[in-house]
Specification:
mainly beta; 256 residues
Length: 256
């Protein structure tokens, strides 16, 4: 199943047989109700999708086009990231405010809400869960360095691993100052940044970087099932380019 949240607030689902549904919901605000709430981030949970939007809500969407609001915090403040912890029936989301106002929220029988989590992040840009429930936070700190934090599964207020560095010394290219998107697999974390793609082990040690061939404004990243290769989408001369690099060796393999 492929899910897309477009700038006009419409959510669409496709399977290999074609599009199966298309729907939108209203943007609620203190002023007039607008026709749709543009999405900012999405995360799949099986064949269901959690969508964060500019209105400050997280909505659960079903393939048939139905939806229901499952959370939110500050009306009118965009939620910039959402992640799903399926085994524990919870989500995490972050707002477009200093520190991200990161919340964990049960969306099953347990509706416990935790947060906001204290963090060294000045800006939060993405969230992800390991299979064991550890939350990974990506963004940048107040000094302008790219930041990663890994939180304990049972006690998300506790940081168990962290990394903060501008990566300015790798080459003469641009300094890395923001984690734009991250992907996790057991034993691996990979991040797309404003300049390079970088992979880490679970202790936040750098295992590989694409710095030999700067990606220039990486927008999206995904890891293969076992975390051995990362696929990175980046913008080059106004065109989207897909690059592949080996997370076990410090080099980029190819661009396609």
């Amino acid at each position: 199943i492929l899910g897309v949240a477009s700038a006009d607030g419409v959510v669409k689902f496709w399977t290999l047989e074609g599009m199966v549904s298309s729907a939108s919901h209203s943007l609620f605000s203190y002023g007039p109700e607008l026709p749709a709430a543009p999405g900012t981030d999405l995360a799949f949970d099986g064949d269901e999708l959690f969508l964060a939007d500019v209105g400050g809500l997280v909505t659960k969407w079903y393939v048939d086009g139905r939806s229901r609001i499952v959370g939110g915090t500050s009306p009118g403040i965009a939620i910039v990231a959402v992640a799903v912890d399926h085994p524990r029936g919870r989500i995490a989301h972050a707002e477009d405010v200093v520190g991200g106002r990161i919340m964990l929220r049960g969306v099953g029988e347990d509706t416990t809400v935790l947060g906001p989590l204290e963090t060294q992040a000045y800006e939060v840009s993405d969230l992800a869960f390991f299979d064991d429930g550890r939350l990974v936070i990506g963004g940048k700190n107040v000094a302008g360095a790219a930041l990663l934090e890994v939180r304990d599964s049972a006690d998300p207020a506790r940081v168990v691993a962290a990394y903060a560095h501008a990566w300015a010394g790798f080459t003469e290219g641009p300094a890395v100052t923001l984690v734009s998107e991250l992907a996790v697999r057991p034993g691996h974390v990979a991040v797309a940044t404003n300049a390079y793609a970088v992979s880490f082990d679970e202790a936040m040690n750098v295992t590989a970087t694409s710095e030999r061939l700067p990606l220039l404004s990486s927008r999206s990243i995904e890891l293969t099932e076992h975390g051995l290769f990362a696929f990175v989408a980046n913008v080059v001369d106004e065109h989207v380019e897909i690059s592949v690099f080996d997370t076990a060796n410090a080099h980029q393999l190819q661009s396609v």
